[in-house]
Amino acid sequence: MFKSFVNSASVTSASRRLFIISLLISMPLSAAESLEPNIAPPEQELLSWLSDQETEMINLLERLTNINSGSLNKAGIAELSELFSQELSAMGFNIDTLPGGRIDMPSCPGSDYSIDLADHVLASKSGRGKRLLLLGHLDTVFPLDSPFQNYRREGDRVFGPGVADMKGGLVVMLYALKALDAKGLLEDMAVTVLLNSDEEMGSLSSRKYLEAQAALHDYGLVYESTGTNNLVRARKGLGQARFVVNGKASHAGGAHEQGRSAIKELAYKIVAIENLTDYETGVTVNVGIVSGGEARNTVAPCAEGLIDLRYPTPEQGLEAVAEFEAIFSEVYSYSGNTDDITTDSWVNLHRPPKIPTEESDYLLEKTRALGRLLGQELGVTDSGGGTDGSLTQAAGLPTLDSLGIAGTGAHSNREQARLSSLLERAQLSAVLISRLARD
Ligand SMILES: [Zn+2]
């Protein structure tokens, strides 16, 4: 699995020894980094082809950003699906549609939290060599009624919804493939592209497809943003839960004692849940949204909350779920007969922690070494946020999940990206993909 970075086919063993010795003498970096061969002429052609496409890449980013694709905007996501299906089909990929579907969650009467998710795109082509799985998401966190809708450019910075997370990454991925196609290198490669529509909802519908594809491939590449030029090595796991407390409505003046306040019970539960946060162990819990009640003078018959969970290890995730369940089944606010207070819940550990392996570290260091050859200095960082790469890595596929455009401010109206990184990352990916296919 861990091959030398020297391409043994290109040098005889004696000259290779000399080559290695001369490298060792002049080497300021670690051995693994310095032994990466230089950019070969066919790779140089990929770089030049992409340089000529920079304006087209920027135009596509503008076009994609101006199409709203909030996770629940099925029409916008369908427009993007069609665009990518056509592009990938033209390069010889077979296109399949993977059904989205409904995710039902408990909710108070009048606040339906069930979600209806758009379909996903699976594009695949067979070939020789290592099988590569390329992942991207079509959705953004910005719904149709968000005030943040348009692409705007100021010099080398662009602003817009999803410009970094991850429409820039989609452009990077597409143009890396287009470069390989233009130079006749794609034809023999075994590549699958999965574009899901629900990543920002936690990949609740696409998870099964991601895990199934992970089992069929050798390397996973995810085109989430590189942030400030960093590749992410490890990530915390993520969980989410909805809980709905049902009480008993009553007149707040005339029959207070006959009521069972769902809001009062919700308040106790919020405190118990928030107290699960432990900065020492790295487990954090956040009750991010609450609602409930019907009127000021009515004892609340229903109240609900939405929880975010972050956890460093799978065991901690399972422990937190068990603690949530215990809190949901307890009644804190009334003693005696508590039959009138019940709690419905939905809990989902939607992102396992991304725990580095030797193979994923190999992928990461190989990419950094290639970045250096291209004049791109890529750092390494850990993250509290999850991606689909967390799912594929946990399913056993060595995955690198931050190959997209350099950008900051994701999920806010400050979202922006460095435009020149569009070409840089497409060049990095085109060469990386061609090397990994022959790995
Ligand atoms: Zn993203």
Topology at a glance:
Layout: H1 13-26, H2 31-34, H3 41-52, H4 54-65, H5 74-90, E1 94-98, E2 101-103, E3 115-117, E4 120-125, E5 128-137, E6 152-154, E7 157-159, H6 163-182, E8 189-196, H7 207-214, E9 219-222, E10 230-235, E11 237-246, E12 250-251, H8 262-274, E13 284-292, E14 298-299, E15 302-311, H9 314-329, E16 342-351, H10 358-373, E17 379-383, H11 388-394, E18 399-400, E19 407-408, E20 416-418, H12 420-437
Parallel strand pairs: 5-8, 5-9, 9-18, 10-17
Antiparallel strand pairs: 1-4, 2-3, 4-8, 6-7, 7-20, 11-15, 11-16, 12-14, 13-15, 19-20
Helix pairs in contact: 3-6, 3-12, 4-6, 6-12, 7-11
Zinc ion (ZN) binds next to helix 6.
Task: Describe the protein's architecture and organization.
The chain is α+β, with helices and mostly antiparallel strands and 439 residues long. The protein folds into three domains: 37 residues; 265 residues, Aminopeptidase (3-Layer(aba) Sandwich), CATH 3.40.630.10; 115 residues, Alpha-Beta Plaits, CATH 3.30.70. It is built from twelve helices and 20 strands. It has a six-stranded mixed sheet with strand order 1-4-8-5-9-18, with helices on both faces. The N terminus is likely disordered. The protein binds zinc ion. The site of zinc ion has 5 residues, from helix 6.
